[in-house]
Amino acid sequence: MAVGEIIKYFRERNGLTQGQLGEGICTPTHVSKIENGKTAYSFEIISMFSERLQIDIEKEMASFQEIEKQLNDWHNAIIMKRMKLVEEYKKDLESIPYISSSKYEYFFRLLQARYCLLHEDGEKAYTIVQQIQKEYQSLSVFERNLLLHIKGIYYLFYHEGSENQQKAIQVLKEINIEDYGNPEYYYDLAVAYHFIDSKVMSYLYCEKALRHFKKTNNFLQAFNAESLMLLQIGSNRYNDFKETEERYNNLIRDSEILGASNKKGMLLNNLGYEYSRRKDYSKAQKCFSRALRISDRLTTTYLLRFYNYVDTSIKGELLRKSVLLKKAREGHSLAKQLENRFYQLLFKIHIYYLQDQMEQYYVYLEEKAFPYFKSSKHVICLKRYGKELYTYYKETGQPLKALQISNVFMNNIE
C-alpha cells in the first residue's frame, strides 16, 4: 500500500490524471487499484510509473517506511520535553512531501497539535483538533485516544469558559489506557483534580503518573508529579511541613543540576504557595520572586506567578500600597494583553482594594467576579471571595443575599 500512496502523491503533484499516468502502461482502473492498495502490481509497472514521474521509488519507499518510527520518536520527544529533539524531528517530518496524504496523516496532524500545546499555542492546537474531529471515524483507536488526550490538555490549560476543569476530567477519563499505551495522561488528570480541589483523586493519579515517569526515566515530568503530590500532602495540617519543605528544596536543587529552569520555576511557585497558606508571606514572596525571574513575561505562567507575588505582598503588607497598586495595574494590563479573563478579574479586585474603593470592590465582586468564579467552578476563589461577600452582607444587614451566597458557596464546595 505504501507504493500506491507514493505513486498517488507524485501523480497529483505532477498534475497527471490516472489515465495519463497509465497511458501505454495499464488502464486508469488498474492505476486506481494500485494507488488504493487493492491489487497486486508488478515491478515493471511500478518502474514505468517511477520513470514517468521522475522519482526513485526505492528511495521513496525507504523514506516512507521510516515515517512511523519518526512519528513515534517525535511523540516520545514531546512527552519527554526534549526540546532540541522535538525541533529536529519536526523539521525532518515536515520535509517528507507525502506525509499529509499518507495513512500517517492523522497521527502527524495530532502531533502537530501536541507540538502547539508544548509551545503554549492553544488556539492553533484547537484548530487542528476541530479539523481532525470531523474525521473521527477514520482514526485508529490509538489516534482517537491521542485526540482525547490533546483535548483534555487544551481544556485544562487553554480553554476559556465555564467548567473547563470538569471538561478536562470528563475527556481524559474517556481514554482507554490499553489502546493508548501512554500513562502520561494520568498527570494531566491529577492536575485537573487539583484545580477542583479534589486532593485524594489528584494524589492518586499523581502516584500513577510518577511510577510511569520513573519507569521511563522522564525526570522532568517526575519533578512535576512529585511537586503536585507535595501540594496535596501540604494541605494536610497534620503533615510535618519541615519534611515537605525539605523535599521541595531537594527537588529545586535537582532541577538546577539538570538545568531544568522551567521545573525550578514551577517548584518555587508551589513552595511559595505552601508558605503563603501558612501565612509565612515573606518566604512566599521570595519564592514567587525567584520563580518570576526565570519565566517568560508574555505567558500565562508568568501571569500566574506575578499574581501570586502581588497577592502575597498584599496579604503580608510587604510593599508600600502605591507600589502594590502599580504592580496590580501592571498585572491587569498583562492579563488584558494575554486575553485572560480570570486574571483580569483578580487584578481588578486588588486594584479596587488598594485604592480603598470598598463600595466598588464589593459591587465588582458581586456583579462581575463571583458569577465568573461560580460559572467556572473555581473552588479556591469561591471559598475566598464567597466568605468575603457573606461577611459583607451580614455586616451590612442584607440577610437574603447572605443566605443566597451561602447556598452558592456550599453547593460549589461540596
UniProtKB/TrEMBL annotation:
Keywords: TPR repeat. SMART domains: HTH_XRE, TPR. Pfam families: HTH_3. TPR repeats lie at residues 265-298. Residues 7-64 form the HTH cro/C1-type domain. This is Helix-turn-helix domain-containing protein. It comes from Bacillus salipaludis. The lineage of its organism: Bacteria, Bacillati, Bacillota, Bacilli, Bacillales.
